[in-house]
């Protein structure tokens, strides 16, 4: 008589058969190795073979085709080719190579970059096109020449600077940008207020039994930076770090399509029935007023008043920066009642992603009470994560928000749930291109 053996695979029962399940099978309740998978992993071929070889031929053709007629000054052309090239690299790269890139190159590159910024190496290197030796750069910066030569070699290996000979280097676009504070502040900024929180995320998630973070005063940020302060309280207590953060954010937004550009949002649709003494736009939590200043430059003849709102210390700083005379600066905490009633539009740029849904609901409810039905709008300038093919900048930012704010970048469905819970409805989501913040247009429900 033949014995019948029962196999439990992924919760289903099978008879006298085998199936792959994480390299093991269960026979009569006992875990048995799946010999085929064990052999594949044991000889190392998986780790040293191309990641997705079946995609390589098509991606090679795509890169070659796109490269023939690419206009590098056209953002869409350049970014399409860049994404195809990245996809080709990921397909060609072996798991072993990816592991070393994740574990070695990224952390060490960051250390090299921050060291170079602190030494002003990039400012010296970028004075002109002339190649400079490691010895020259060490003399100019006061660094140990042996140490600096090691740093420079890694920066060249990672494409930050260009190697022109033995221990000799020339500037690139990246290194030239790193000679400017607006861009090089990003590196100490990350070290001083972001990265330790992100690195603490796995331990924090494990402690919380892998629940979605929801408390901005008890998340990975506090663990990583050994503080009881919320991120924004930490910024207030450390003004130099806050300045670095503001520079980083301004650099992040540079060169990206803006909702007020022609062809993005229908800006003139806001103008009818707005008189000169009416409030056209309230920038809620608008920081230094960069967005309103941009709006005034691009729409000089727009009717009505522009009002910038933020906390007292921020408004004081904005006034020092000499806002355009037509922008009114007002102290306001967006968790309290909105004092400007019946404005045409209440605008928020990257405000709600800093906060949990409960906090966002409070912010939005404060606006609802000030809106005029059939006239007022809420314009939310934020990321909308697509259901598929999300962009890496957006998914990276989502995990940063999870770690350091216990907040999130939201999907379209999430945005609908959130605004509707506050008494609003989304009338349209305006988008320009992948990875760029959309404009979510809302009215009273």
Automatic annotation (TrEMBL):
This is O-methyltransferase family 2. Residues 1-19 have a biased composition (Polar residues). Transmembrane segments: none annotated. Residues 1-24 are annotated as: Disordered. The keyword Protein biosynthesis does not apply. Keywords: Methyltransferase, S-adenosyl-L-methionine, Transferase. Residues 218-424 form the O-methyltransferase C-terminal domain. Residues 111-178 form the O-methyltransferase dimerisation domain. GO terms for molecular function: O-methyltransferase activity; protein dimerization activity. GO terms for biological process: methylation; secondary metabolite biosynthetic process. It comes from the Eukaryota. The keyword Kinase does not apply. Pfam families: Dimerisation, Methyltransf_2. PROSITE patterns: SAM_OMT_II.
């Amino acid at each position: 008589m033949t014995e019948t053996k029962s196999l439990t695979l992924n919760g289903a029962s099978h008879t006298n058969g085998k199936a792959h399940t994480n390299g093991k099978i269960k026979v009569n309740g006992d875990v048995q190795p799946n010999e085929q998978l064990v052999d594949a992993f044991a000889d190392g071929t998986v780790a040293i073979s191309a990641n997705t070889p079946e995609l390589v031929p098509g991606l090679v053709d795509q890169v070659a085709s796109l490269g023939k007629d690419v206009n590098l000054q056209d953002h869409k052309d350049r970014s399409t080719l860049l994404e195809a090239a990245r996809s080709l690299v990921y397909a060609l790269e072996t798991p072993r190579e990816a592991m070393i890139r994740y574990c070695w190159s990224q952390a060490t590159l960051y250390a090299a970059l921050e060291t170079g910024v602190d030494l002003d190496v990039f400012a010296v290197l970028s004075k002109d096109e002339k190649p400079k030796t490691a010895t020259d750069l060490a003399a100019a910066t006061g660094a140990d020449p042996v140490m600096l030569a090691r740093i420079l070699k890694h920066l060249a290996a990672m494409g930050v600077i260009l190697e022109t000979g033995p221990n000799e280097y020339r500037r690139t676009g990246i290194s030239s940008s790193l000679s400017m504070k607006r861009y090089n502040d990003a590196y100490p900024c990350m070290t001083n207020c972001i990265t330790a929180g992100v690195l603490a995320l796995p331990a924090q998630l494990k402690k919380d039994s892998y629940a979605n973070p929801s408390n901005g005063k008890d998340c990975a940020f506090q663990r990583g930076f050994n503080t009881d302060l919320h991120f924004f309280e930490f910024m207030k207590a450390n003004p130099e770090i806050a300045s670095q953060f503001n520079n980083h954010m301004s650099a992040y937004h540079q060169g990206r399509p803006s909702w007020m550009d022609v062809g993005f949002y229908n800006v003139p649709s806001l103008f009818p029935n707005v008189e000169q003494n009416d409030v056209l736009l309230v920038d809620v939590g608008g920081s230094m007023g960069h967005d309103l200043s941009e709006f005034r430059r691009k729409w000089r003849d727009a009717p009505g008043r522009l009002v910038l709102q933020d906390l007292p210390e921020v408004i004081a700083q904005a006034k020092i920066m000499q806002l355009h005379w037509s922008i009114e600066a007002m102290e306001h905490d967006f968790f309290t009642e909105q004092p400007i009633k019946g404005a045409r539009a209440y605008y928020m740029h990257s405000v709600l992603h800093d906060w949990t849904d409960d906090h966002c609901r409070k912010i939005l409810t404060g606006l609802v009470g000030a809106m005029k039905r059939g006239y007022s709008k809420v314009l939310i300038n934020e990321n909308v994560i697509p259901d598929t093919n999300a962009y890496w900048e957006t998914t990276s930012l989502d995990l940063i928000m999870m770690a350091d704010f216990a907040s999130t970048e939201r999907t379209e469905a999430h945005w609908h749930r959130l605004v509707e819970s506050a008494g609003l409805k989304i009338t349209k989501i305006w988008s320009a291109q992948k990875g760029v913040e959309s404009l979510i247009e809302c009215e009273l429900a």
